[in-house]
Amino acid sequence: MFVGTYLVSVTSGKRTSIPSVFRQKIGQSAILAKWYENCLVLVGNDSWSALLDRLTGGERMIIEPIRETEHFIFASAYEVDIDDQGRIVLPDRLVVYAGLGEQVYFLGVGDRIEIWNKELWEKKEAEVAKEAASYIERLAKRDGK
Fold first, then answer.
1. Check: CATH 3.30.980.40 for 2-117?
2. Are the beta carbons of 76 and 91 closer than 8 angstroms?
3. How far is CA 92 from CA 8, 58, 64, in A?
4. Residue 23 belongs to what H/E stretch?
5. DSSP line for 57-89
């Protein structure tokens, strides 16, 4: 399980280091792709299929919402190798999509790692903190508790 938030630098060559606590769990190669809310997702190769099944609800029919989810994620995905120092190169296309700059946040979010633009995450984190209690209430009502 991935947990925690880490601020990391990005070089001019778009190389960044995966926080060591995440590297120990992710392995030597991973999949990097667009994710929701203008961030990126990073998962180990062995976890990729499970994440996609979770997104699509394990649907076997290729209906429009499944196709569109696959287009959004698969078409943007890159296999990335993690070097001996735990670094990856961020593809230009993904850097532009997520608006990444000289510093990025790596977030451990259970079964995945998200990579966020520094300013965007700080704004989002403040919004989530402000609404956290109402999110919990809504989830509890949904589950009938």
1. no
2. no
3. 18, 31, 28
4. helix 20-26
5. TT--S--HHHHHHHHHHHTT-EEEE--TTSEEE
Instruction: Extract the tokens encoding 70.
Output: 């696959």
Would you list the domain boundaries of the chain? 2-117
pTM for the predicted model, two decimal places? 0.90
The pLDDT tens digits of the residues spanning 82-133 come to 999 999 999 999 999 999 999 999 999 999 999 999 999 999 999 999 998 8
Closest of 111, 80, 97, 75 to residue 16, by C-alpha: 80
Query: What are the tens digits of pLDDT across the range 13-37?
Result: 999 999 999 998 998 889 999 999 9
What does the longest C-alpha to C-alpha distance in the chain come to? 50
